[in-house]
Amino acid sequence: MALETVSLNRSHGGTQGVYKHHSRETGTGMTFSVYVPPHRNGAKLPVVWYLSGLTCTHANVTEKGEFRKACADLGLIFVAPDTSPRGGVPGDPTGAYDFGLGAGFYVDATQPPFALNYRMWSYVTEELPEIIAEHFPSDPKRQSILGHSMGGHGALTIALRHPGRYRAASAFSPIVAPSQVPWGIKALGGYLGEARDAWRKHDTVALIEDGARYSDFLVDIGDADPFLTEQLRPELLERACAQADIALTLRRQPGYDHSYYFISTFIEDHLRWHAARLTA
Amino acid sequence: MALETVSLNRSHGGTQGVYKHHSRETGTGMTFSVYVPPHRNGAKLPVVWYLSGLTCTHANVTEKGEFRKACADLGLIFVAPDTSPRGGVPGDPTGAYDFGLGAGFYVDATQPPFALNYRMWSYVTEELPEIIAEHFPSDPKRQSILGHSMGGHGALTIALRHPGRYRAASAFSPIVAPSQVPWGIKALGGYLGEARDAWRKHDTVALIEDGARYSDFLVDIGDADPFLTEQLRPELLERACAQADIALTLRRQPGYDHSYYFISTFIEDHLRWHAARLTA
Question: How many CB atoms lie within 10 A of CB B243?
Fold first, then answer.
């Protein structure tokens, strides 16, 4: 698999890279970033996957996430994929921020015209892991996943469907029940069609209701998040986890909003949570 | 002095703000950012000034600087001004990145058409400190200054000319001898005219040669910085400080470049250096 190196920058003792490749899943060029912490020659390091939210690319967390110091301290590789195919593929003709470009929602679309390119589920869970395993000093047996907002939705659903592969899962401000909120109804309807049974595999709360299990989740949400009550609805996750006996550490952070100023404040906590489970 | 609040975000227990005001010095609207760490009601906190480099605004360090955790731990207010007047004022008609907009060089211009608006020296050393003192829980007796590249030049020259006001001074990748390098010759010539005597008050090495003194400087430079040998020339600062008995801690950081990936790696060290001198 050919990788083009876009940039390499020394940071916190390791290397922050940005890479491009042609994706077999999306049929487009895709860009992602990887931070490799300082390590001994020949070492194989655990990999933390970070899925971004609506409108974002790999760049948002790479520039604003403040994750590198903790990754350097803990010896974690940090991978940040893009959130949709780019470049000449269909977006929302209305130019909406919450569907199409920047809003892939981590599903494999079944509906035209999106089915051809919007394959972010397979891209993030199959294709990109192969590339990371091939090109970086990583240990595929030690992977974990987190995300923000739409990416929190992605992280939790991916973890619930691959509990043996991802040893830790956490989220900032996740969309936990897309079938029940406007962002999710628009996205799942547009990518998967109106038959709602197909949505349940891409809905954290529905997956848990349908029997999916995971050891434990860490979730941070700001209580000043403007999307809290309409789009995020953490109480639905709380109830589902309680009924399923899934250990949920849900922290409502006072005064925090939906931004990277919030994420960067608590990402070290998340990475320590992941490291504890990746090195156990 | 009326301040307009552009944004406020909770971060690392404190508040990251962005503000606009009309500047008497530049005659334009000016934008700056201030991080206020968590503090007791009524407390007056030390203020660290951060001056940015060519092409930057307040936003670069605010988003990418990774300074808030250390400022929160150390109880420091962090102020990031813009680097030039904006909005309808003259820039370089060639669209150059190194003169005019984004390249004020922290001088009060004397040459037309720049003399009217390009008054970044007075803006940063006089006007904005008054605003900070009035609007933020700050202790004007405890201030310090640092900067990057062109902003490192600004920080060192301002500290040398106000050794009693700024209790600590440090720089990342500073332009230490603008009179001797292309960026500086273009900027000082354009803003101050061709009579080079006027440049010496805006040249760190020349100021030291002319008798200015400061207790000690911390300077970090990446040895993979593409501007190292032509524009930055740290050896000139080394020699001037040695001859003047100024304590210089100059660290050449292996593999690091000129970017915020470099700055964010070492800014905690700088803030600890500042805090030690601000609380002594």
Answer: 10
